[in-house]
Amino acid sequence: MSVAPHVLEVKDLVVDYYAGKTRTRAVNGVDLQLGRGEFLGLVGESGCGKSTLCFAIARLLGDNAQISEGDVLFAGQNLVYLREKQLRHLRWRGYSVVMQSAMNALNPVMTVGAQLTDAMKAHTKISKRDARQRGQAVMQLVGIDPIHLESYPHQLSGGMRQRAMIAMALVFIPDLIIMDEPTSALDVVAQRSLMIQIKELQRELGFAVIFVTHDMSLVARFSDRLAIMYAGEIVELGETRQVFTDPQHPYSRGLLSAFPSIHGEREELKGIPGSPPDLRNPPSGCRFHPRCPSVMKICSTAEPPAYSPRGTDLVRCYLYADQEAEHIQLRSVP
Ligand code: SF4
After folding, report:
1. Residue 72 Cβ < 6 Å to ligand 1
2. What angle do helix axes 158-169 and 188-205 make, rounded to 10 degrees?
């Protein structure tokens, strides 16, 4: 039997929101592959489509949004075409999602233990006793005393609530966990300790992670690869170290120059002039062209394809058109 090399493959994914007759294309032609046990950081400014992409992958979009094109291949199936009943079978066991705000995601009138048991019973046949034992085990995994299975969400600190959410996501040890800004409501100390724990669990249990954040410092340390999104598109994808040390896309450079480094000389932080486009009416050609310091004539006329200059998986920018041609030529020399 052949083993799929990737846990997840997203191909040319397009997601639209509808408000009356107005269409907003929030995700535009995203391609992404995730290896088993890989930790992928997904970063970009607010409103760039990070969360929409994740909800589309998990098939958790609201009624006002739809996947208009593309494929999401997971565990040998295309999630785009699965019915709710089939998805229910995959959720939690195959993949799970940790939401941004645990206070909103957890039911305030049920104990954490009751919520864990409910989730387990909804997705598999399990006795009350076994569910209880499993609940205790996953609480211990995330560093919470199982005594808190009896606690209500408001009785836990912000960090403990997020850990409880991660415990729920881990209840069947899925192959993939999608985390949508799981640490954004925490102070920096709780944030760091939660990240260390996520990374340890990931190494121990072998699941892959898509980690959404706008905090570059978090992904700098913890992710294997980094995807940078701008206006609904992944504009750069590569190994985290490579993207941080030698960003290729002008937007990635701008984003990183707005982020302070704790090493080396003190440098003045630069922002990116202008603001992200209105996705109801995005700019023609490259969506970054009105803000790009390297803009060329071609940039406003046609969307740049994905190039893979040396050292990166993908860069959507015409600056690399010639380099890629050179690279392909070099590769074809016998
Ligand atoms: Fe800038 Fe053109 Fe590259 Fe877009 S394609 S990032 S406008 S140089």
Report:
1. no
2. 20
- What 3-state class would DSSP assign to 131? helix
- Give me the phi and psi of 272, to 5 degrees please: -105, 120
What gap in Å lies between CA 264 and CA 259, rounded to an integer? Answer: 13
Here the CATH number for the domain that contains residue 92 is: 3.40.50.300
287 C-beta closer than 6 A to ligand 1? no
Distance CA 180, CA 158 (A): 16
**pLDDT tens-digit series, residues 309-329:** 877 899 999 999 976 545 444
**Domain limits for position 190:** 6-332
For residues 267 and 131, the model is more confident at 131
Q: Does the C-beta of 285 come closer than 6 Å to ligand 1?
A: no
Spatial contact of 295 and 287, defined as CB atoms under 8 Å apart: no
Q: Tens digits of per-residue pLDDT, 221-261?
A: 899 999 999 999 999 999 999 999 999 999 999 988 877 66
User: How does pLDDT run across 94-137, given as a tens digit for each residue?
Assistant: 999 998 776 677 888 999 999 999 888 887 888 888 899 999 99
Considering the domain boundaries, does residue 1 fall inside one?
Answer: no
Ramachandran class of 70: left when φ > 0, alpha when ψ lies in -120 to 50, beta otherwise = left
In a domain, 316, yes or no: yes
Query: Which pTM value belongs to this model?
Result: 0.88
Ligand 1 atom with the smallest distance to the CA of 287 is 4
**Between the CA of residue 107 and those of 99, 128, 151, what are the distances in Å?**
13, 20, 12
